[in-house]
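Re: beginner question about structure tokens

> Can someone show what the tokenized structure looks like for a real chain? I only ever see the sequence side.

Sure, here's an example I had lying around. Input first:
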Amino acid sequence: MNIVIIGCGKVGSLLAEHLSRENHNVTIVDINQQKIETAVLENDIIGVVGNGLDLEVLKEADVGKADLVISVTPNDEKNLLVGIMSKELGAKRLIGRVRSPEFFAHKEFFKKTFGFSMIANPELDTAKELDRMISFPEALKVETFAKGKIELAEIKIRKQSKISGQPLYQISRQAKLPILVCSVIRNGEIIIPNGDFVLLKGDHIHVIGHHSDLIRFCVDLGIYDKQIHKVMIVGAGEIATYLTQRLLERDIEVKVIEIKHEKAVKFANKFPNVTVIEGDGSDESILDEEGIEQMDAFISLTGMDEENIILSLGAKQMGVKKAIAKVNRNRLHNIANIIDVDNTVSPKNVIANQIIRYVRARANGEDNHDLLTLYKLVDGKIEAMEFNVTKSFKGLNTPLKNLPLQKDLIVAGISRNGVMIIPNGNDCLQVDDHVIIISKHSIESLNGILGAK
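And the corresponding structure tokens:
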């Protein structure tokens, strides 16, 4: 596909990297020459220096021949206007990033009136991810499939865990639940395990199943933590706005600290039942005064990755059970894992996953919509994908044990008529199943899970 990306910030540069790796023809536009030069140097792409609102710049980027224009500048209005201009110039499809709740409320209008294929809101989806972490405090990350009916949870094996030192087949017998440990991260290496694989302290595992079964799994095996009732958030931006709304709906007590006066006042007016403190969230005396030791969870959402990591570590030392940091830079994600920050979230990765899924679903033709969900895990080293099984799948009604599946790939779950199936070798894929694949390499369509016989 010919893809033009407007905006070479964190999101745009990440998209350029992933999409060029998948052999798309990528052109990226930004007013900052240094950003463009860096992106072109690091990836096999074309760079155009200029303002995306300049008609001549859009023409230079050849948006008129683009299969897809993705506008991900920091400005919502600019993203919408760039999309409208690109459509008039002949672009086939449009994706625009819109972050503010006011604009996003009208996403269907923008799609219908101006022809946007997708209005992406990383702040809203990051808030949803945070909400899942709060509802499942044992998990480092929680991804959903089958319209939220199935979850993939990342859990760290700690010293006191009953499953440390046990092979997976024995854990399955003990749990007696429809769950599956489908991947293990050990010392940076990703392993697709078999039943004889033995878990060790420090391993990160991805477990798939229904939410209630995963909770019971954690309880039965001694890795359960108490439910969260009180949350402190530092930073009153869009993510905090979306997240607070969701937490209040579940009767969770929320306290927000914001250093900027106007933002603090705006947030307090929007949420009169929330305690909003105008102050510096890195000030230990403020945290003490506001009762951080009584909080079940602490979430740092400032604009600085390093500050978020430090604040989360500090919150853990002050007695908070679960601390979460917003971290966009992959290098700092790795550091956060090393120093044992409980959880990190990345808005740029959230939107990148959505857009890459959209691109893959349409890369092989107008009607190829079998890829429903896509998550890049462990800094993109592993992918979790949900496919709709159609008549075009070459392995229909064939036992999985007889299919020539690709190496480093596992069929992790099947959703059939709303029922979750943990597959074994005798199970078959049927039309209209939703199948979840965990793989160490990219899969564009469900037939891509098949290798040579």
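Each token stands for a local structural state, so reading them left to right follows the chain. The first strand starts at residue 2 and ends at 6.
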